[in-house]
Write a sequence for this structure.
């Protein structure tokens, strides 16, 4: 994985902005779906698909590819949009999200889109699947395997007990080929995570289960990239990156408001959001500068 | 009389018929399958000895994963291994897998269409003294309802071994129902086995059957004993071993119904949603036939010996004879 040049970061910002615009267009057209998480995770998805992941859209079944398991399937608009921009499917297909007959199911389903590594939606089972992939990979290639199994989870999702079964197992198995990124956006459907079911001290929790833990700004491309590089250099443990993100990132009216967890923008709100993203007058441009 | 062509155990009517736990056949089958195919891996939730997975784990420690008491994780980790080309077998007690982890099996195994093989041991009330919490009598219902799933309930340890080896070679997710207690050996190594094929194990000495009995699992032995008694009383019986509950052998079931005109189904399971229900769904469509359903009648299990419980819940030989007499009167 190369270091990020300033030019590359500029390109990634433009791509992430395009992905955010597509997310808005998809949700307005679908009239249902989740807004906050997909916008908040757009930068991480962009960095993964346009820099970090060892994948080839022309050969989605390439055996030696890195695997990306999306556990919180409800943020799939950002997965679909990013994969479309990366070349996995036509960009205009994004507007079929959640419609009858579409490959873009409301929550991802492999039967409709075989190049997805997993189907998801019911929370809490992605990490277990990623662990299974990491163990199988180690059986075949030994601990020196050069594949990385990525798992993306939400923070609210960590309420699910199955995650902690999985976290225990990965620590026990010393799965160095496993890298988890937690979308720490502090919201879930019923409100702020620390009110619904407190998770802090989240880093200490993972650490005590024998994981290598990093906490980063999930909107800073250089931070995300450095953390992934560091995680890959850890030999004896699985790694988790707790990425602090802003739910709804990029559209001021949506940011940090848990009501946008599972609500799509209507037409007017969508136009307002697109205008803010397209003019680049908002905070995306200014924040990393 | 026994169907000669199936080469069944001729000693099965003897009081001292050889008895082996069905789970033993699973353990031996898994070991055999593992020797034949390097891609087979095994995962267990802290019951490796009880489920007889230890035969595989001892031989192939590098292909065995101890998950701990965590059945939800068990199912989904297996799904992930299958995504990488492995053929995972998972085992626990049926009450916990597929009981506790049903949604993980539905979503991460079946909805993902991954070839994970789920061995649920200690199924049925015959688990005995552990009591109702540990007696899975709903597992056939909750597994057969899931798309993509194959469901097999072997009648003895020899059939369980064959079923284990056979299911390792199919791409579908599969549920294998296993029993804890020693149960009579009905089949032999030479008895044919094919997933999806029912077998008529007992046939009248001559002429057509008056009644058909369809049984699954170890209770098949009781069905055969009842058939022999009924035969002496002049009631001609055919007994079917329906070990694959999904996909259902519609053709064999309809053929038996057309001949016998009335049926008794027998399973160590709730009568709702299990094998009998599957048979009824088939016949309602293709050949409506009177059926008496033997099994647990909307009750939970309890502590006791295996024999006491089979008797208490109405699945013993006299219960089968009574059900046959009852359905004879409903015969059209």
């Amino acid at each position: 994985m190369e270091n990020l040049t300033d030019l590359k970061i500029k390109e990634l910002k433009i791509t992430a902005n395009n992905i955010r615009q597509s997310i808005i267009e998809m949700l307005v057209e679908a009239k249902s779906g989740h807004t906050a998480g997909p916008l908040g995770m757009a930068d991480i998805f962009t960095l993964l698909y346009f820099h970090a992941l060892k994948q080839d859209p022309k050969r989605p079944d390439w055996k030696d590819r890195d695997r990306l398991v999306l556990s919180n399937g409800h943020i799939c608009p950002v997965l679909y949009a990013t994969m479309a921009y990366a070349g996995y499917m036509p960009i205009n297909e994004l507007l079929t999200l959640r419609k009858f007959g579409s490959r873009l199911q409301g929550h991802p389903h492999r039967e409709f889109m075989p190049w997805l590594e997993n189907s998801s939606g019911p929370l809490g089972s992605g990490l277990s699947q990623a662990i299974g992939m990491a163990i199988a990979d180690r059986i075949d290639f030994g601990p020196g395997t050069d594949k990385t199994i990525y798992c993306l989870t939400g923070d609210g999702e960590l309420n699910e007990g199955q995650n902690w079964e999985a976290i225990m197992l990965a620590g026990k198995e010393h799965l160095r080929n496993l890298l988890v990124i937690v979308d720490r956006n502090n919201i879930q459907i019923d409100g702020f995570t620390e009110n619904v079911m407190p998770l802090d001290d989240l880093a200490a929790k993972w650490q005590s289960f024998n994981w290598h833990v990093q906490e980063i700004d999930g909107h800073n491309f250089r931070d995300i990239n450095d953390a992934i590089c560091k995680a890959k250099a850890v030999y004896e443990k699985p790694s988790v990156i707790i990425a602090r993100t802003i739910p709804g990132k990029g559209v001021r009216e949506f940011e940090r408001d848990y009501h946008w967890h599972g609500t799509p923008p209507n037409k007017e709100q969508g136009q307002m959001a697109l205008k803010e993203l397209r003019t680049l007058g908002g905070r995306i441009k200014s924040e990393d500068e | 009389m026994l169907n000669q062509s199936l080469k069944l155990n001729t000693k099965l009517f003897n009081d001292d018929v050889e008895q082996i736990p069905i789970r033993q056949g699973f353990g031996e089958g898994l070991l055999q399958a593992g020797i034949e195919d390097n891609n087979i891996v095994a995962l267990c939730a802290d019951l490796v000895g009880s489920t007889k997975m230890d035969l595989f784990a001892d031989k192939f420690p590098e292909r065995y994963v101890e998950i701990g008491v965590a059945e939800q994780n068990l199912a989904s980790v297996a799904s992930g291994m299958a995504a990488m080309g492995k053929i995972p077998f998972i085992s626990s007690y049926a009450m916990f897998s597929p009981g506790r982890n049903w949604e993980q099996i539905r979503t991460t195994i079946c909805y993902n269409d991954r070839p994970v093989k789920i061995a649920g041991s200690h199924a049925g009330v015959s688990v005995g003294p552990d009591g109702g919490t540990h007696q899975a009598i709903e597992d056939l219902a909750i597994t057969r309802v899931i798309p993509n799933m194959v469901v097999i309930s072997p009648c003895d340890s020899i059939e369980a071994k064959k079923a284990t080896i056979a299911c390792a070679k199919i791409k579908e997710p599969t549920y294998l129902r296993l029993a804890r207690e020693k149960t009579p050996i009905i089949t032999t190594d030479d008895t044919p086995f094919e997933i999806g094929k029912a077998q008529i194990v007992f046939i009248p000495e001559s002429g057509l059957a008056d009644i058909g009995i369809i049984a699954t699992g170890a209770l098949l032995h009781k069905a055969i004993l009842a058939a022999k008694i009924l035969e002496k009383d002049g009631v001609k019986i055919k007994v079917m071993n329906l070990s694959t509950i999904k996909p259902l052998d519609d053709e064999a079931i309809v053929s038996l119904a057309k001949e016998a005109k009335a049926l008794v189904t027998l399973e160590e399971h709730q009568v709702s949603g299990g094998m009998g229900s599957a048979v009824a769904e088939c016949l309602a469509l293709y050949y409506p036939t009177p059926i008496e359903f033997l099994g647990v009648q909307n009750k939970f299990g309890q502590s006791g010996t295996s024999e006491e419980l089979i008797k208490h819940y109405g699945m013993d030989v006299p219960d089968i004879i009574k059900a046959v007499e009852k359905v004879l009167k409903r015969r059209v």
